[in-house]
Amino acid sequence: MLISAAVAAAVIAAAGPASAADMKKADCLQCHGPLEKLTQLAPMYQTESGKVINPHKFIPHDSKDPAKFPECTTCHTPHPMPPPKGFKDKSANVEMCYSCHHNYTFQKCSACHK
Question: The whole model's pTM is what?
């Protein structure tokens, strides 16, 4: 895994900063994956309402199809490669979640809809 992370970093660094906007999920998952690991992380994102969630979800949530997992750049701004020492991503947002969780509570749909 360490070798693949180093290779991924070298490829991304060689591509230059202009390509950061072109980052795809597969690029991010070379270091931050696999998807299963992300979906099983402990809740770490505090929403505006104060609820702490793990926003790394398939859409719909019961899917396991990698194509149903949003692109990372939907919620995150790509970081420079290599990331600066001590880098913490503060750019993440959950705006996409609010297209379904329109009441900002992150409850299951069935809590409000029959």
Answer: 0.71
